[in-house]
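Collaborator request, handled under Task 6.
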Amino acid sequence: MNLLFRMLRLLATFWLRAKLTSPEDLSVMRFRVLPTDIDMNIHMTNGRYLSIADLGRLDLALRSGIAKHVAKNGWAPIVTYNAVLFRRELRIWQRFDLESRLIYWDDEIQIFEHAYRMVGGAFDGQIASVVLSAAAFYDRKEKAFVPAERLFDLLGIAPESPPMTARIERFISSYKAFKDDARPRSLAA
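Structure tokens returned to the collaborator:
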């Protein structure tokens, strides 16, 4: 319910925008910081960045055509880890573009980047925040995440992942370390 009207707008209009034909295609959506997005500092609250990133991934899924396969198979989109870097505040009424793209994948993980670029004002064009998300589709019947290769097979493409960069390697290492630390411990420990 958090972003209901923005999501309904996306669902009603995505088909008017260009189809995405490559996994590395960029989704760009324009938003404005609304009074429902702010905290006591009169800027966008930190949790809203993650919620709006969900819309970026939804736009990628809809415009690439993968969303229809996800719905048909009953798969659930799951985000397993996020890292957020805040550089500039987005104040109330500030316009910004959300730039979303898939930046890496392998058999186990898909990594998305969401950049929040300021539109207008003294910081026009500057990045306010960047979110990296580890996400995938979960097949409830198979009780496993769907490999990226299977998703691309459904789209009739066979792309290679962009290369592993030091930045992506650090993100994955952080994710794995955090995941290992968060595993349930026995009561005896």
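The cover message to the collaborator said: "The chain has a mean pLDDT of 93. The radius of gyration is 17 Å. Please let us know whether this matches your experimental observations."
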